[in-house]
Each structure stands twice: as C-alpha cells, then as structure tokens.
Amino acid sequence: MKGNHLFVRNRLLPAMVWVIAILVIWELTSWALLNIGHLPLAQSKLPYLHEVLATSIQYSGTLIKEGSATFGNAGIGFLLGALAGVVLAILMSISTWIEKLTFPYAVASQMIPVLGLAPIIYGIVRDEYISRILISGYITFFPVALNMLRGLRSVEPSALELMHSYAAKPWSIYWKLRLPAAIPGLFSGLKIAAPLAVTGAILVELMGAQHGIGVIMLRNLYYGPSHVYMFWSTVFIGALLGILSYWLISLIERIVSPWQPEFRSKGGSHS
Amino acid sequence: MSLTASMVKHQVQTPEIQLKDVEMRYPTDTGDVLALHQVSLDIGKGEFVSLLGPSGCGKTTLLRLMADLIQPTSGSIHVAGKTAKEARLAQKYGIVFQSPVLYDWRKVKQNVVLPLELVGVSKIERERKAIELLELVGLEKFADQYPWQLSGGMQQRAAIARALAMEPEILLMDEPFSALDEFTRERLNEELLSVWNNIQNTIVFVTHSIPESIFLSDRVFVLSPHPGRLSAVVEIPLPRPRTQEMRNSPAFFELIARIRDSFEGV
C-alpha cells in the first residue's frame, strides 16, 4: 500500500538511520576510550553495548523478575494517582470553591522533593510495595489533575450553549460534553506521568528495598567495575520500562479517542 | 399553499414568536451598553423571517433572547405560546449557530441525534431517526464519518439536521452560512428552502447579507445599530418556490435597494 510505503520512507527510515548511527558512534567511542585514551575505568564511563546486551541476556531472568516488580507497583500507583487526579479535577471544575481550597496545596505538595519524601514514606509504612505505590501515585496525581482540569475547561462556549438550548441536565453536560472534551488533556497528563511513576518507584527501591530493578542497580553499583555491564543493563531496563509505560498510554489513547486531530489521516476531507 | 394565504398569514394568525418592548443592556466598566432598544415584533406560524443588519445591530442578541440563552433587561418574549424559558425547556425550537458546533468525538449520525439521546430515546429509534434526518439534508452517505472528514458546508448541513431532530416548531438560525463561500452559500440557501418546504415550521434566520435575506424570507426585519433597534419590516412578495433566476430579476434588485434605504445611521 502507498500509505505503508510512505510510512517506511518518512518515519521508519530516518529512525533506523538515527539508531544505527548512535550505536556505531557509541561503540567507536567506547573502543577509543579504552584503547586510545587508556582512561581508568573506561568501561564504567561508556561500556561496550554488545557486552551490556550479552549480560542482559545472560541475566534476563533476574532482570525480568525485578523489572516486573518495579513496573507492577508503579502501575498500581499510577492508576490510583490518575484516579485521584481525575476525581480532583472534576471536583475543581464543578466548584471554584473546591479549586481555591485544594489547588494551592496540590501545587505545594509537588514542591517536596521526591528524594526526600521517599525515605519518609518508607519510614512510616515500612513496606516497600506500599511505598512504591504511594510514591508513584503521588507523582502521577498532579500532572493528571492539572491537565484534566484544563481539558474540562477547554469546552467552547457555543458547545455549552447547544447543551443549554436542549435544556440538558448538568450531569448530561458532564457525561456527553465535558468529559469527552477532556480526554486529550487527560492523556497528555497520563503521558507525562507514566514514565515519572516508573522513575519514582525505582527511587524508592534505592532507599533499601528487597526487590525491584533499583535494588540490583544499587547492588551492582556497589560491586564496582566488575559488575559494570550488569549496572548498565539495569539502567537500560529502567529506561525501557519508562518508554514502555509511555507507549502503552499512547496506544490506549489511540484506541479510546481515535477522533483526536493528531490521529487524523490526511486527505480524508470531502468537498 | 395559495398565494393569498401566504400574503396574509402573518396578519391573521396568532404569533408563534412575540416580542414586546424588549430592551437589552450589558453592563460594562464604562457604563451600560444598550444593545437593543424597544424591540417589538410578531412572527407568524410557518413564516420564514430574516433578522438583517450590520454587525453591532443586535440581531444575534435578538435571536439568543428568543432562544432563552440570554434574558432581556426588560420587556416580554413569548415563543410558541409560552415564555422563552418554558419554550426552551419544552424543546420548542432547534438552533443552528454560526459554526457547526459538532462534537469531535461523535460520528455524524451520533451528532445529529444528540438531542434525542439527551431525552432518552432508544438506540434503535435513534438509528432510524438519524438516517431520516441525514437523508433530509443529503448526508446519508456520511453517517459514519467524523465531523472533520466533512467540508464546512456539509458540517453546517449536519448541524441543521441536528436542529431538526426534535421536530421543533421553530428553527432559529444564527448566520449559519456566513463562514461559507458564495457558491456553497447559495446552494445551501436553496436546500434550506426545500427542507423548509417539507417540514413547514417557523424559521428565524439571522444574516448580514441583503440578497440572502430576500431570497429566503417572507419578511425581512431590518435592524440598525447604536443602539440596536428595529428600523423597518420589509415584505418579500416574490413567489415560491424561489429559484436562482429570481436573484437576477428586477423585482429582486428593487427589494435590495428598498432594504438598503431602510437602514438608519449606518
């Protein structure tokens, strides 16, 4: 098909060129640091990618197990945080009184550094799973609430007047107009929050948990140069989890709201 | 409809829309702005009237008052024998805005039956009615498209179909074709008249185009600005059905001149 051909030429090809170029430059630089620069701990600074990959495959069992512990908890926290964000956004859009009451505190809550908050929460609940869920939820909550609120308020006056002309009930106006109109805003909030939720969960693990990708990351960092490839594997897995979460949300968005401007195909218009 | 009947109907019948001494003021920082001054008018059942005037004359304000989207500072408004608010709550009118105001997330057929959905009409009945409405405006092939896949003219036709969903006695139209090009606009004028011929309801049409108002209407209410007021009511004695050739007739040009002369202080 012509569309597929264009996709390959315009999207896939440039992406491939970039990926291959970066891989080549990385490997060459790594080789140069080691053999030309003779830097101390050259592999810790920029390891051979093929070695990292080999280690990742060798320890794939561990990486998948610990990775899914992190991802699972981050996911639960993300869902809870998103739900809380949506509910608060709806309440704030209904009543400016609630907005004035809660919004400054919602903003202030985001001023607390997660790095400081994580050990506090861990100290209180004394459970690594709950801590991860709480921190992921805490990080997710704010961008979701903010973007959802903006979405709820994005409704055009004429769209509202149409509802008034039908004498629509406030409940119907939310269900048929405000909530659908807020979907693009909601998803931009979710897309910002999803990778952050994963990072937050990893951060909690660094505070001294038993499971999770952050734990083996920390361990291999302590073990020093001999475990450098494993350390880099965990870094890549962490990044992959973040990308995966973003990609998952984008996929859901496409399924839930195919009508959004960025998903529209070109040339579909009739005269 | 016989010619005699159409000539006298707005005089003999009880008015479908009646405004008495309607005054509209907007408060602003520099004092009140008088948007409408002492407007009184009657619109007969089944009549097609235009509210014509330059921007700032209050024609859209007048339409929004009839729709109960805003309320007058003083004066009374009756629509279909009820107060404007009662008429709105009883869904006595359908409204078409300047922009189509179709909801992006709904397919064309779902947009068209939105008012039916709000009053709890069953899905099967809605499907049936959607096809009927879309056939009325010639969009049946586009039922499953999204609004953005339609041209501006087609979107506005969908908006008209939606306004007719509740089979309202009155259709209020606020410059529905002003964003369209001249050719599309003239075609849609003709289509609107053929739809009106089928359903025979009362239409109030806001426009700033003199030819459009003449082509469509039984009577043209001419409004003048600063303050917005009714400065003339012009009968359009052109026979129906109206045809595109009439736009070039001497009678048509005479009416244009008469209406142009009736504006005050523009």
UniProtKB/TrEMBL annotation, chain A:
Annotated Gene3D superfamilies: MetI-like
Residue ranges of coiled coil: none
Cellular component aspect of the GO annotation: plasma membrane
InterPro entries, sorted: MetI-like, MetI-like_sf
SUPFAM superfamilies: MetI-like
Keywords, alphabetical: Cell membrane, Membrane, Transmembrane, Transmembrane helix, Transport
Positions of transmembrane segments: 12-34, 71-91, 103-124, 130-149, 186-209, 229-249
Positions of the ABC transmembrane type-1 domain: 67-253
Mode of membrane association: Multi-pass membrane protein
Statement: the UniProt record of this protein carries the keyword Transport: yes
Subcellular location: Cell membrane
Pfam family, one: BPD_transp_1
Similarity-based family: Belongs to the binding-protein-dependent transport system permease family.
Xref: PANTHER family: ABC TRANSPORTER PERMEASE PROTEIN HI_0355-RELATED, ALKANE SULFONATE ABC TRANSPORTER-RELATED, MEMBRANE SUBUNIT
Name of the protein in question: Putative aliphatic sulfonates transport permease protein SsuC
Species the sequence originates in: Paenibacillus nuruki
